């Protein structure tokens, strides 16, 4: 029953009875009403083959300063529900309804609560329990991806290193990853801070190993005016263009009916630890203060959506040449 339940609830803990190498992490992004504060928190677990390095963790990144922290805990301080999204690490709790943080370790101290409301869920369909579509049922993939909340409202405040961070009237977003390792190279972009209050975007393009080969796959969506537009490898979408020069990125994605054009400017990000088969030993950069200019068009040329996303998340990692479509 647990195996069936977790397939249709990708947001819940997938790692019960798993052995290393295995990781699982949830990504909670929170932005204040006026954009004056933007923080992401990543609770997670890392299991290795030797068991000695097994641990759970909370990563935190300040979108304004780029400062980041990787806070580790003994593995026995990780508690997770297998029925709903509820993660407890140390004295902090993360759920679909909000986060309660009580952290005091090394140079990082954070206390307070954020409550989430008006959550927009990623739709589930027959043979598509989440953003991965039917790929959700494919075993032995290196990394799986899930969207928990496309967009939601945030209420509350956090005191972080003696500074009050007010998130009242702000926005939030939740996603997650789990598996054995992150890809060798990928591009990830996310924003839900557009003039259109409920608009939300996520794009993930990666080199995906499969059996003895590999391919470039992608997952993406844009949510506009109560409608979700999906672009993905599994539904016939394709990435038609990628360029990345001097921290400027341009991406064009299309399916049979629509085109999605994104121009982004990467701003200096903070350090995060990313999973490999040997543990959380890869250091990457993530910005959550980048700017994305986004256009969604019909194939006939009509513009459905055109706006600029602020406080946007962006990662450009590994050899990006591997991802650029061949002409």
Automatic annotation (TrEMBL):
Top-rank lineage group of the source organism: Bacteria
A Pfam family the protein falls into: Tocopherol_cycl
Any one Gene Ontology molecular-function term assigned to this protein's record: tocopherol cyclase activity
Signal peptide: none
SUPFAM superfamilies for the chain: AttH-like
InterPro entries, A to Z: Tocopherol_cyclase
PANTHER family, per database record: PTHR35309, TOCOPHEROL CYCLASE
Protein name per its UniProtKB record: Tocopherol cyclase
Species of the source: Alkaliphilus serpentinus
